[in-house]
Amino acid sequence: MRNLLLASALSLIVVVPAAAQDATDPSILTVERVFANPSLAGPVARGVSLSPDGELVAFLRSREDDVNVQDLWAMPTGGGAPFKLIDARALVPDAGELSEAEIARRERMRISARGVVEYSWDEQGRYILAPLEGDVFLAEREGGAVRRLTETEADEIDAKVSPRGNYVSWVRDQDLVVYDLAAGAEQAVTTDGDGLITWATAEFIAQEEMDRDTGYWWSPDERFIALQRTDESTVDVIPRLDISGGGATVVEQRYPRAGRPNAVVDLYVHDRTTGQRIKVDLGANADVYLARVNWSADGKTLYVQRQSRDQKTLDLIAVDPTTGQGRVIATQTSEAWVPLTHDFKALADGTFIWSSEESGWKHLYLHRADGRRIRAITSGDYAVTGLNAVDERTGTVFFTASMRDGKEYPIEQQLFSVSLRRPGRPAEITPRGGWWSASVNRTGTAYVGNYQDEDTPPQSALYSIDGQRLAWIEENRLDETHPFWPYNARQRDPEFGTLQSHGETLHWQMSTPPGFDPSKRYPVVMQVYGGPSGGGVKRGWPSATTQLLTEAGYVVFRLDNRGEGYRSARFKQALHLKMGQPEIEDQVLAADYLRSLPFIDDDRIAAMGWSYGGFMTLHMLTEPKMGLAAAISGAPVTDWSLYDTHYTERFMSTPQANPEGYAASDILDQLPLMTGRLLLMHGMADDNVIFENTTRVLNALQEKSLPFETMLYPGQRHGIRGNERGLHQWRTYLDFLDRTIGSRSPAAQD
User: Fold this and answer.
1) Which of 71, 155, 343, 686 is catalytic?
2) Catalytic annotation on 686?
3) What is the residue range of 303's domain?
4) In the chain, how many domains are there?
5) Residue 157, Cβ neighbours under 10 Å: how many?
6) What is the pLDDT of residue 112?
7) Which of 308, 439, 611, 641 is catalytic?
8) What is the pLDDT of residue 98?
9) 240 and 283 together in one domain
């Protein structure tokens, strides 16, 4: 369950009730403007990356005539204006329907745009590969010529340029294909992918829950391709009604529910010099997870991370690609779960970097080739959020963390550097005060920095490694030319604070309406996700959603409860075996804090959330101590035994091993305890949180004669896509809030 936050369109918008706005005032943000072009966010660069030599920056930019379609742009780092490298509409004027496999893959990756949605460099930086609407295009860096490699009825998915730039590979019809750029011909690596057998594609669980979106890996010398084979015949068939505006289709979905069998995933190595394919020995127990696959720098060792089914053990296996034989060289264990990361880096001298939470915080460690640990690279009471790059020439490691002076500071994020070779205090590369993400070039001399704070929309620039800005990629300056400028004067900076719960510090964020008067009393909307995620409270550019809620007269409040955010292992593991208990306890603490404020109307507090946030809002509405007047629950999990294996068992074990925890988190028996009105929403083709989660609540509420409201979206999956449906969704939200806690609510008339 990748973090969907409050709703699929939370960063989009809600409509302001007529009673709360002056329609003639051009400074008041309207829902019509938000769903118009160009985007109110301004020219935001997405997917920014440096060429391997650092001389060119590539990025995705939404079209001015359609914010839902992206083109690929590039800019010389030595100076010069950005230029469009791939024009999506020019190459594919009439985008057709994507295959079910690609639709599902994009749903897993939370990609809702069309056009160019992903791209990749070869390691020499000669080419940029861009899949576009199911076909594959290759842009040459010199001259900018764009070459179309495929034009087939089937979709080519997960396309890659080989490391040395001699080949392009993709998956078509469940088989892996390699295309020789010099010869202009393709060759099938596998040919028996069909039905329940799929090659080189990450299985559902890997895509949805393990943050692994690929199922094959080139060796650096292009000799080998490691690829997975997935057999779904062991997975339960869950008949799912895919209900659209044109009717209903029964989908026989293979969905691995908690406590039930997973797909069988095997790993093979294809030797391109001999044409042979050998199976990798992953051990006698087939009921494990293929977590991560990496190559050594010389291509002679394949590193495989194997996770146990209960996720309490993570083994690192060094595999000989010529024989498939491997040995465990390092192991991580936990009494709760071992998290998966992308913090593995094989170095040229045979050593490698790998992160671990064994100290109670996620930190980076240097290991010998045989797996023995050399030393800790980072340490302290903070978590490394990501390994960005390693400059092996200078022995410098670059990483991101939410940290100040060696202590965690969750509401900000910075880029740091530290020595690979000797202990030392990390050096701050980016300044404090907001939220940074960064991509460091191979030589460690420059980085692309993406920055935002409460007063700065997302902007991207190229910086030297000492932090000096060399060139803007997208300045996105908030001035008179910015699309948000007319509404900026009414945007209020959020306030931040903390609460204490069981020895842990919880961070909160609150926004108040324009013209806020502390002598008056205001209704509150508590935005909530609550589950394991990156957290939502941070010094970042406020969403238009927040401003429209405040324009409607609501105080908007968010608390990151225990279990949420990149925090200590103890903080995250508070919900182990008891999801829906410590999180709700912390949200009760937040509600009590809100009621202690003189400007909060105690009787007009509502909560809204989607996905895990939908699960949370149902439990908040049925917790008497919360005293909510209303709640909006979108696509909620209502019984964790209906959700998938890897996510659910990580936190809850299996239904067989933890029946008490599963029973306590099931919402059905708690429904009579609802303290206010409920709006329940769900996409009727959701293949992630299956629609059954909502229908069982609908049935139980009707059986108990409990009033509620429902809005269902035909054809929509776990997120509600498109401007028209997004507009409808948020109009429904605001109408409900206005009637329950807003200007039309009974409490407002008292």
Assistant:
1) 686
2) yes
3) 202-244+264-340
4) 3
5) 23
6) 61
7) 611
8) 63
9) yes
